[in-house]
Write a structure and sequence with these properties.
With 457 residues, this protein is mainly alpha-helical. It has 20 helices and ten strands.
């Protein structure tokens, strides 16, 4: 009929067949899911390989892998028939090295139980599917196909720990024998820090409380439920008994009864006094000075008092802090640390975790527990005007006149609010902003016209 397009049946059939074949080839070529990983004995048929071609074809070109397979420990997938196609696609892939799937999917196809169900802690490389940071996927001279022997594989990432354990005076023998004596390398179902068992159960596997020497060292206190790592460094120390390097004097002198009720009590570990009053027994002058100021850091006035931030026994940190200062302050002030991380210009004291460069951690006469700088050249008991305080404090590190001639100080009225004065914080936010130079507004002209309105466009 006129006006109608004639469609030959055979042409429509071949068009449909071509579309189906194209789809099948696309799916096969992608090979981006673990579902495409077939059993070794099925690969010959899947890829139409010649008999026994899997090993010969690949290793004919990849001679470096052929040499590698002479190592003592060969990956099972290769050892059983040289089956390269268990992990690699011979044609095309969306993944590097022609892998049939992402490394995480690929490894977990055969090793699904590496991370325990409901794990309390997991190893970061395992979480990220970076198995090859520790293991050679083909072969190795080390058990479990590890890239390096013993602790050296751990020290690839934990370089600081390597320096620590190699330089301490008193070593913990399980560390020398191997990190996996105490740590599960993939994940732990029961403990933080990849520990195989929770503390003290793990420690009591070697250190028996009924040992007379162990009991004596702990002044015969009942230690069966104590957390050993509050006092002892499990990786080694420069102190006898592998106590942390900074030890509280009463602890070093085994004067436990100075703070605790004592081993003869029904509650031997109960503190004799609550909060800062316990510490005041020895640190009376310091506590009096703290309480004499207008603003006191709230943890000091809590039930825990000083031990909110300080360890009462031993610590690897100076001043017996429970953690590095940035991490310790960040527990209560995570927003401040997060803001600094986002800031385009980093404030050096915050970046280095030196919060006390600007703040007094105990008390202050000023808002935000700001320090009164020595450069003010005034008695410490005399309160400075806020603008003078801020300019002098910032001036301990920054000579503002080197980069700005803008007038600041207690005599310079802030045009936005005549009750305030111009000082460094009028333009900058010390913990960072999304703008350069920690400015409140960007570009700089937008900062300036907050006061100089006549220049607004």
């Amino acid at each position: 009929m006129k006006g109608r397009i004639k469609v030959r049946p055979y042409k429509a059939f071949f068009t449909l067949l071509s579309a189906i074949l194209l789809l099948a080839c696309t799916v096969t070529a992608r090979a981006d899911d673990a579902r495409f990983l077939l059993k070794p004995d099925a690969d010959d048929a899947r890829f139409l390989l010649k008999p026994d071609a899997r090993e010969k074809v690949c290793l004919g070109c990849h001679t470096d892998i052929a040499d590698k397979l002479k190592d003592a420990y060969v990956h099972t997938a290769i050892k059983q028939g040289g089956d390269c196609t268990s992990c690699h696609s011979p044609h095309a892939s969306n993944h590097g090295k022609l892998l049939a799937a992402s490394v995480s999917k690929l490894c977990f196809t055969c090793h699904p139980d590496r991370i325990p169900a409901g794990a309390k802690s997991t190893h970061k490389p395992v979480n990220e599917g970076k198995c090859t940071l520790c293991h050679d996927p083909h072969a190795s001279e080390n058990p479990f196909h590890l890239l390096k022997a013993g602790n050296d594989v751990c020290f690839q990432c934990h370089k600081g720990k390597k320096k620590e354990v190699s330089t301490v005076k008193f070593k913990h023998w399980p560390v020398d024998k191997g990190c996996t004596n105490c740590h599960a390398p993939h994940g732990s179902a029961t403990s933080d820090f990849l520990l195989k068992k929770p503390v003290p159960v793990l420690c009591l596997g070697c250190h028996k409380l009924n040992d007379p020497e162990v009991a004596k060292q702990h002044d015969y206190y009942p230690m069966q439920n104590a957390k050993c790592t509050l006092c002892h460094n499990p990786h080694g120390s420069n102190q006898p008994g592998i106590l942390y390097d900074n030890v509280h004097p009463p602890m070093a002198a085994r004067m436990c009864g100075q703070c605790h009720e004592g081993k003869g009590s029904a509650t031997p570990f109960k503190l004799k006094k609550e909060g800062y009053r316990l510490c005041q027994q020895c640190h009376a002058q310091q506590v009096s000075g703290i309480m004499a100021k207008d603003r006191v850091h709230w943890p000091l006035l809590s039930k825990k008092g000083c031990i909110t931030c300080h360890s009462p026994h031993a610590s690897p940190q100076k001043f017996l802090l429970k953690a590095p200062m940035k991490a310790l302050c960040g527990k209560c002030h995570p927003d401040t640390i997060a803001r600094q991380a986002r800031s385009k210009t980093k404030h050096k004291p915050v970046l280095e975790g030196k919060c006390v460069a600007c703040h007094d951690p105990h008390s202050s006469n000023y808002a935000f527990l700001i320090n009164q700088p020595a450069v003010a050249n005034v008695p410490s008991n005399k309160q400075l005007p806020w603008a003078t305080l801020v300019v002098d404090l910032c001036g301990t590190c920054h000579n503002y006149q080197m980069h700005s001639t803008h007038p600041v100080g207690n005599k310079v009225v802030d045009l936005r609010n005549k009750n305030t004065r111009v000082q460094c914080l009028s333009c900058h936010r010390v913990h960072g902003t999304d703008n350069k130079y920690m400015l409140h507004f960007w570009p700089i002209t937008n900062m300036c016209v907050q006061c100089h309105k006549e220049y607004r466009r």
